Amino acid sequence: MYQAGRNFRVFLIASALAASVPAQLKSPLNAPAEPFSIKRGSTFTASGGSATIPPNAEPETKTSRIAAEIRDAEDIIARNYIDGRKISRAEMTESALTGALHTLDPHSNFHGVADWKDLLDEQKSGYTGIGATIANFERSGVLDTFILATFPGSPASRAQLRYGDKIVAINGEKMTGKASDDVRDKIRGANGTVLRMSIERAATNQIETVELRRGRVPQPSIPDAYILRPGVGYIELSEGFNYTTSDEFDVAMRELKRQGMRSLVLDLRNNGGGIVDQAVKVAEKFLPAGTLILSQKGRSRIDNRVWRSANTNPETMPLVVLVNEDTASASEIVAGAFQDNDRAMIVGDKTFGKGLVQSVLDLPGSTGLTLTTARYLTPSGRSIQRDYTRMDLYDYFNHTENAAALVGSSIAMRTVTDRTVFGGDGITPDEKVKADEITALRAALVDPIFFFAREVLSGRIAGLESYTATSFTTGNRVTPRDLPSTEALKSAFLSFVKKQGTWRFSDKQLTAEAAFIKLRLRYNIIMASYGVNAAQQVVTEDDPQVAKAVETLPRAGQLAQLAAKRRLNK
Questions:
Q1: Which runs of consecutive H residues, i.e. helices, occur in 362-513?
Q2: Is 342 known to be catalytic?
Q3: Euclidean distance between CA atoms 474 and 454, whole angstroms
Q4: Based on the structure, what is the number of domains in the chain?
Q5: Same-domain status, 347 and 410
Q6: Residue 473 backbone zone (phi > 0: left; psi -120 to 50: alpha; other: beta)
Q7: Residue after which a domain boundary falls, among 178, 199, 218
Q8: Paired strand residues for 146
């Protein structure tokens, strides 16, 4: 959300992990990508109040002298460095700005043209491209990018791109060896422009060249919502909080109620954040009028602000919220508001711990600059920001053991029902449940499973013709009976791996991971047949964190009732 101010807008940074969908799909069981990069689902959150960056108080002569010194340094480097002719002054300037800002805190940053455009696109709940989910897979040391799914009505769908189609070249430039993020950047462009894509069709192994006209592709913040168990609704709010999130949430709630929902599991895992007003709107759907949701403390009074619910008829159904270490910023606002007000129970892993507010200055050339100007606090007064002063950026963003060892004693606060909660280190779940471990062996199995599934779905594995994908629609609710992963399928995969000779696994390793292999095979087959959302439902069926969330719903309902009584007795 853009705020009034002179030449700049205020945001609360909320980058995710989101992880981009391609990165998530490349990883076993939807493992998170690197956090806080500008990818699909990573966004910035508008803060409240006016922007308060003070004008430059230094004399113009001093500012000019500093600028001149920087230009002189660049000239000297360009003339004397051994590879000086290859130096990009723009890249040097960006690196210098980024380095300077990172001496302040991890979230003050400079964003180049491409990152800035991605950020703004995500805020608008969409992007300009062809509407395809892509991912990297490697065989015999060769890295290629493949189509995994297309969005209905998108340019990619109209061009009949299918699961397993390999992207050979874009506008004549070969894509072999390139990361899927780089391929994505080549695919995206101005609305209405045309790109030529050379595709190796999975079904025929023949190369075709197709022309696609780029268009606006919706990017909802709620990829999926469905009835998880009888009476239990599930909403996956994983793609940040953008301008349409509250409306999307209302639509999902109405449909789930129509299907008999009486309690809800809200999944905020891998949600890197988003627009704070949208996060507040989601929280207040479950909190009665007057309830404190969030407060913000800044350097000046104009940055100090509180958000309270204005809902006179909130939802009262039992609620459990799923979180993990990539739940950050605005999504932590929602989790913290529910936990401090005892409206929901939190299940999963400890959240990222990002509670800083940045002001973002629009710079010439469509770039942006972020600068931390405030902190936000949960209703009990907790700052959930982790300490970053005694570690490097790698440890901070990747939650390494070094970072964990530096965490100080947390600050204890009290909830509405007098439960103890802690600040200074993210949101600690009420029920801690680890996600399925992504071992090195499982990661190594992802590539051969994909290539085997590609052969199966193209009808090239004898005896498995029933698995050939014939439908490419989305929106299906997958049940355990749909396209089951049979012993015959698993046995054929084991034979495929041994015949290929590309991947080397022992019989003991393959036997130990039999369940994972069957799950991942079904995941790929469902994706090819029904799309990304349906494939994710396959993972959710056996997710231990989801199972614990469902088990916790009755206690969450009891806690919410007790909190409501406490409010009445105040």
A1: 393-398, 401-405, 440-457, 487-500, 507-512
A2: no
A3: 19
A4: 3
A5: yes
A6: beta
A7: 218
A8: 135, 166
Q: Within this chain, do residues 276 and 245 fall inside the same structural domain, yes or no?
A: yes
Instruction: Kindly state whether residues 196 and 237 are assigned to the same domain.
Output: no
Token pair belonging to 146: 């493949």
CA–CA separation, 197 and 488 (whole Å): 36
Tokens representing residue 389 in the block: 């002063």
Catalytic annotation present for 329 = yes
* Gap between the Cα atoms of 296 and 273, Å rounded: 16
**Which listed residue (39, 117, 354, 518) is catalytic?**
354
> pLDDT tens-digit profile of 331-343?
999 999 999 999 9
Tens digit of each residue's pLDDT (9 = 90 or more) over 116-166:
777 666 666 567 899 999 999 999 999 999 999 999 899 999 999 999 999
CATH number, residue 407? 3.90.226.10
Give the residue numbers spanning the domain of 469. 440-542
Q: Which helix (H) or strand (E) holds 357?
A: strand 356-363
Residue pointed to by tokens 């041994």: 498
Residue 569: left (phi > 0), alpha (psi -120 to 50), or beta?
alpha
Q: Which amino acid is at 95?
A: S
Q: What share of the chain is helix, strand, coil (3-state, %, to 5)?
A: 35, 20, 40
Q: Is 39 a catalytic residue?
A: no
CB 349 within 8 A of CB 325: yes
Q: Could you tell me if 310 and 275 lie in one domain?
A: yes
As a whole number of angstroms, the distance between CA 206 and CA 154 comes to 23
In which residue are the tokens 């300490």 written? 387
CA 256 to CA 478: how far, in whole Å? 16
Q: Which whole-number Å values give the CA distances from 429 to 124, 319, 324, 436, 468, in the listed order?
A: 31, 14, 9, 17, 42
Catalytic residue among 115, 165, 340, 543: 340
Domain co-membership, 194 together with 285: no
Q: Which of 329, 380, 485, 529 is catalytic?
A: 329
For residue 466, the one-letter residue type is: S
Entry pTM: 0.83
**71 Cβ neighbours under 8 A, 6+ residues apart:** none
